[in-house]
Amino acid sequence: MPGEITFLAALLVGFLGSSHCLGMCGGIAGTLAVSTDPAGSSFSVNRIAYLIIYNLGRICSYVLAGFAVAALGYLGFGLLPPAVAHAIAMGVSALFLLALGLYLGGWWSFLPWLETRGNKLWRMIEPLGRHLLPVKTKSRAFTFGLIWGWLPCGLVYSALAWAASTADPAQGGLLMLGFGLGTLPTVFCMGLTGQTLQRLRRHSLFRQAAGVSLILFAAVMLIIVALDKGEHTHARNPTHVSDNSHTQQVH
């Protein structure tokens, strides 16, 4: 997929999948909001400024991770012919989006298993975040966001698998930038109106609509893979048409 399409697709995936963030990050968002402005209103200028800076740090972590996993993907996919590598990358991306859609719709519990795989790393990083509380400076808010970006999250892991399948560090970083910006409205609003969003999260129709949207998106990607494969097969066998016409001329 071209870089612009990848970015927009990741933006959509982050937005649709961010209902998962309500369960994973709601408590941390509330803690950050209270520690930055315990006596202020939800919409105080100070609280909004800190939430913006925090989310900037969180998204920076996503971009760095996307760059790293895509570099690893390049080492693996670089051993394959370009057409084969592209088809596999698109197929892997589509399958992870399919799994994410099934999870959000409540039809398959897949992401919690992924999240347990990252707990060991998180136990090493999490104390650094605790030492930053209460968050009283903007530099602390940014650092807190950088650390929070490594919270075990199946949604993020799915996006990182997609980034790795691009086998292009720049495109992997761009994909995770789009994904992070897609999650921004939900995570930002959690620091302001967390209870309202928690009620929305409990709406099964909301989650199922997001799940169906991602499943349809995955289906489109698989169709693109199939069409590309057909084009490459035709390109590898360009002589059969000319052979037939030559036979007809001889007869």
What does this structure look like?
With 251 residues, the protein is mainly alpha-helical. The chain has one domain (3-250). Helix content is 84%, strand content 0%. Helix 1 (3-17) packs parallel to helix 9 (169-201) and helix 3 crosses helix 8. The model has no long low-confidence stretch (mean pLDDT 77).
In summary, what is this structure?
By secondary structure, the protein is mainly alpha-helical. It has one domain (3-250).
Name a few traits of the molecule.
251 residues, mainly alpha, 11 helices
Over the alpha carbons, how many angstroms does the gyration radius reach? 22 Å
- Care to count the β-strands? 0
> Which geometry do the CA atoms define?
globular
How many alpha or pi helices?
A: 11
Distance between the termini: 46 Å
- The stretches of 5 or more residues where confidence is low (pLDDT under 50) are none
**Average pLDDT level:** 77
Report the order of strands and helices.
HHHHHHHHHHH
* Sheet with most strands: none
Helix content: over 70%
Structural class: mainly alpha
How many structural domains does the protein architecture include?
Answer: 1
Percent strand equals under 5%
Question: Could you give the topology of this structure?
Answer:
Elements: H1 3-17, H2 19-36, H3 45-77, H4 82-104, H5 111-117, H6 119-130, H7 138-148, H8 154-166, H9 169-201, H10 204-236, H11 239-250
Helix pairs in contact: 1-9, 2-9, 3-7, 3-8, 3-9, 4-8, 4-10, 5-8, 6-7, 8-9
